[in-house]
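Researcher: Re-running this chain for the archive, since the previous output was lost when a drive failed. Same request as before.
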Amino acid sequence: MTDKMINGILFIIAGLGPIAVYLGLGETGILDKGHTEKIAAYLLLTIPLAFMMTRNVERNTFIDAGLLIIVVGLSMGLVSDAINSAELGAESDSIGAAIAWTGWSSMYLGIFITGIGYLRTNLFPKWLSGLLSVASLVFFAFLAVLSAEQVSNNENIVGPLWMIVSLVLVILGIFTMRRAE
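Model: Regenerated structure tokens:
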């Protein structure tokens, strides 16, 4: 299997994997909250891997900066999810919630900056790089501007925004697999 094929598969897993785990295994009750979060966390690790592999095709300082922010934000988000999934009580939920939206919004800020880097290269069509930038910027702004309570009160918006960015990641995966050497 070629590097670009693996890179494309990582983008597709990054886009579809966590959604499939949360909706297919967590929401149906097949897995408890702790196991659902754990499996989703492992799948979320494909996000920085996919961006890092693309970075090696064509280098750009925006892509590098975005990747760094993605790793930091993802780390914070995974810690908050681990705290929440431990179900230690109201105190741990408060701690997890305090960390969660800062971490996840930071990750989407990193994806936005990476998208700007892609716009400055020929890795992807300009419309796709622009779509990645706009979708992740909107999700970042939504999570960063609102308080944790406001985000919780508007969770019906979080899902669609997350799915839009995830769909763009899947499209990036398809374009990566089809990219000419």
